[in-house]
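Re: Re: ligand-bound prediction request (bumping)

Still looking for help on this. To restate: I need the protein modeled with magnesium ion bound, output as structure tokens. Inputs repeated here so nobody has to scroll up.
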Amino acid sequence: MTFSPEDLESARKIFSGPIAFLKSAPALEFLPEPTVNEVAFAGRSNVGKSSLLNALTNRSSLARTSNTPGRTQELNFFDVGTPTAFRLVDMPGYGFAEAPKDVVKKWRFLINDYLRGRQVLKRTLVLVDSRHGLKDVDREVMDMLDKAAVSYRLVLTKSDKIKASALAEVAAVTEAEVRKRAAAHPDLILTSSEKGMGIPELRAAVIEAVG
Ligand SMILES: Nc1nc2c(ncn2[C@@H]2O[C@H](COP(=O)(O)OP(=O)(O)OP(=O)(O)O)[C@@H](O)[C@H]2O)c(=O)[nH]1
Ligand SMILES: [Mg+2]
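Reply:
Sorry for the wait, this slipped through. Here it is.
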């Protein structure tokens, strides 16, 4: 993580300005017009995508969060800035085994089609729970992103839930794996939506991606 104090401060300013929910897209035909750049939040169900979006924007309930996996069921678009400078996209989780099969399938197609086909998508944040590390379902998504040459960056979530030593270990293992991948940013960002850890850096990383 190598952001200057100026980068961090200008990112903080942008995220403390106007941010508003634009729309939910339950299917590709409902996507907003691709008029501005986008950054998407992807990851397994319950990994903390919606919570991280709220922490990033410093708003407690912009995106809906829940203890129960499967809370976010559509692609949710949020406009940053007036006029809109770029958009954040909160996505349904993948790898949610308990949901009905047809629902899982529908989400998978929606997520994959959006990620592969969206020209204005500048970077996908792939969120991974610090306690669990990378799972095969994450690797499948990274394979897909590598193949489609969609730039992505790994973000460890819920870092407050494990000890610093365990966090350092999972970060090292994850980073080593990520560095072998074609479309991945080589550096991870370690975050906690609960404690605010890594949030200023993640804001700067978003600005870097859309800038
Ligand atoms: N301790 C801790 N809990 C967190 C953190 N981030 C999220 N959570 C909790 O994890 C649960 C899931 O968070 P969400 O943000 O709804 O997760 P999601 O990835 O959007 O989930 P889906 O929309 O269902 O795919 C909630 O109970 C959050 O309060 C964190 O940084 N620390
Ligand atoms: Mg969610």
